[in-house]
Write a structure and sequence with these properties.
The structure is a single chain. By secondary structure, this protein is α+β, with helices and mostly antiparallel strands. The N and C termini lie far apart (54 Å). The model has no long low-confidence stretch (mean pLDDT 93). Bound molecules: protoporphyrin IX containing FE. Protoporphyrin IX containing FE (HEM) binds next to helix 4, helix 5 and helix 6. The site of protoporphyrin IX containing FE (HEM) has 21 residues, from helix 4, helix 5 and helix 6.
Length: 119
C-alpha cells in the first residue's frame, strides 16, 4: 500500500549537536518568563520577525505570544519552518502541521504575554 501523502513529504531535519529535546528541557528550565503576563497588541508582535534582532522572534499560538528565539535551533521541524510564523499568528499553520504537539508542555517558558487586537 502506498504511504500517505503527508508521510512521503516528510523532510528529515538534522538538529545541530546539543539541541536535542533533552537539551531543550534543560535550557528551558533556566528561562524565567515574565510575571504577570502583559497584553501584547498584534502590531507589536509584527515588529519581532527578524531572527538576528536582539528583540526576539515572536509568534502567537492559541492567543498567547511566544518568543521563539531560544527554541529555534531545537525545533524538530527546523528553524525555517518555525520562521514562517515569525511576527504573526501561527496557530493555523501549527495545527495543520502537528496538532498533536503540546505547545504548552514544550515552550511554556517562552510565553511572554497575551495577544490582543490593536485599538
Ligand atoms: C513554538 C511552536 C512549535 C513547537 C513547540 C513545535 C514542536 C514540534 C515538535 C515537537 C515536532 C516533532 C513532532 C513529531 O515528530 O511528531 C515538530 C515538527 C515539525 N514542526 Fe513544529 N513546532 C512549533 C511550531 C511549528 C510551526 C509554526 C510550524 C510550521 C510553520 C512547524 C512545522 C513543523 C514541521 C514541518 C515539523 C516536521 C513534521 C514531520 O516530521 O512531518 N512547527 N515541531
Amino acid at each position: 500500500m502506498p504511504a500517505p501523502a503527508a508521510t512521503s513529504k516528510r523532510k528529515k531535519v538534522t538538529l545541530t549537536p546539543g539541541h536535542s529535546p533533552l537539551d531543550w528541557a534543560r535550557l528551558k528550565s533556566s528561562i524565567q518568563p515574565p510575571f504577570p503576563f502583559r497584553k501584547i497588541p498584534l502590531s507589536e508582535v509584527k515588529q519581532h520577525k527578524d531572527r538576528n534582532s536582539p528583540g526576539g522572534v515572536w509568534t502567537v499560538l492559541n492567543g498567547k505570544v511566544y518568543d521563539m528565539a531560544p527554541y529555534l535551533a531545537f525545533h524538530p521541524g527546523g528553524e525555517d519552518e518555525l520562521m514562517r510564523v515569525a511576527g504573526r499568528d501561527g496557530t493555523r499553520l501549527f495545527m495543520l502541521t502537528h496538532s498533536w504537539v503540546n505547545v504548552d508542555a514544550i515552550v511554556d517558558a517562552c510565553c511572554i504575554g497575551i495577544a490582543v487586537k490593536d485599538d
